[in-house]
Amino acid sequence: MIDFTDRLLPDRGQPARAIHVVRPDGFDAWLAAQPPRVRTAVAAHRLRGKPGDRAILPGDTADDWAMLLVCNDPVASPWRIASLGASLPEGTYRLATGEVGRAGLGWLLAQHSFDRYTKGDPVGPRVLLTDDAARIDDTVRLAAATALVRDLVNTGASDLGPAELEAEAELLAKRHGATLTVTRGDALATGYPMIHAVGQAATRDRAPRLIELEWGDPAHPRVAIVGKGVVFDSGGLNIKPGAGMRLMKKDMGGAAHALALAGLVMAARLPVRLHLLIPAVENAIAGNAFRPGDVLQTRLGLTVENTNTDAEGRLILGDALAKAGEDKPALIIDFATLTGAARVALGPDLPPLFTDDDALAADLLAAASEVGDPMWRLPLWDGYDEMLTSDIADLVNAPDGGFAGAVTAALFLRRFVPKDTPWVHIDTFAWRPSAKPGRPKGGEALGLRAVYQMLKARYPAR
């Protein structure tokens, strides 16, 4: 993965080319203040100050030049200059106004690409200077965490199974002095029966597991982060059609978010007792695959009638959430690529969050707005709880009819969370179907920065 540390540096007066970022409503005033050579160059490009207009501006000497970008994004947007981070030649740059702010993140991420299976970007680093040196470390960590999510989600399932997710957690544990515990294969059958049931049909080298990492002072508030780690989802015996299976390498996107967030929390040394839990499985098809109609035992003691083997993510999360709740955490956060219904409701860019805690929801939405990582609250509507009723067990995993699919999935998860424990479920897509500046098509972190910002505000580093 790209090293971002040399691409956002403190401005100490080093030689650098200027970047003029001008709002459309300020374009005429900016242009009037420029020397004749700049006005001539802008006229030659026939620019009128529309968003997206850009030009190379001549300097005092033959090899001196600057960059103009007309942009109506607010100064707080991470993506304000992302298009330049990807397109400018190798070199060192500074914003003419000096206001980098959150735009440093987009500058860095514009230079990241997933090149595991292709040749990488031959262009050298584009360095941005900033006078806000205190923000650099956190921005670099956010870029690295986002790139980690993208890389993990983009990796083909043949190269990323439960063992590889475990290896990522092990790297994190070694880097930050955390403790790693892994329960694998048939050892799951008694303690985590739903994780075992979903993953038992996979080959032995892709055996299911619950990956747990713990870090921090036990005296600090306990925060549990849970991530759905379905490394590939065939749909099980309720097999998906080919088109529906095409992107199912990304069904471990929740685990990727959880790993990245845990890394951010530990790197920032937030005063929490971190508990990371990743149930990692492949939902495969074999003679021992779990079946529609099977009644599954759970860690919590409830019984679940499995009505759809393609609603497996909520099953593995149920056991993991039950385990997280046993240690009386101050907060539980789960990320999951859980339902297509969430995409139908809100599209690919806007992950829904579900929580019964109004203060937690308000903090998350405020953080999302602050860092430009939008989310939307959907209801845990109690009236739909009856849709989970089973004739033969305590509940079903997937109600008939398909109404309110994202809501009923969240209500299923709520059954496994202690009632007095603050909890939020984020149904992230972890994928970008089309490219935008700084955000290529493919795996994407959606909701990661918002949750991290909320945690920093609740548990400020000392």
Automatic annotation (TrEMBL):
Regions crossing the membrane: none
InterPro entries per the UniProt record, alphabetical: Leucine_aapep/pepB (IPR011356), Macro_dom-like (IPR043472), Peptidase_M17_C (IPR000819), Peptidase_M17_N_1 (IPR048816)
A GO biological-process term: proteolysis
Gene3D superfamilies: Leucine Aminopeptidase, subunit E, domain 1, Zn peptidases
GO cellular component, one term: cytoplasm
Molecular function GO terms recorded: manganese ion binding; metalloaminopeptidase activity
Keyword tags: Aminopeptidase, Hydrolase, Manganese, Protease
Domain Cytosol aminopeptidase: 308-315
Origin: domain of life: Bacteria
Family: Belongs to the peptidase M17 family.
UniProt xrefs under PANTHER family: LEUCINE AMINOPEPTIDASE-RELATED (PTHR11963), PEPTIDASE B (PTHR11963:SF20)
Protein name as annotated: Leucyl aminopeptidase family protein
Source organism of the structure: Sphingomonas oligophenolica
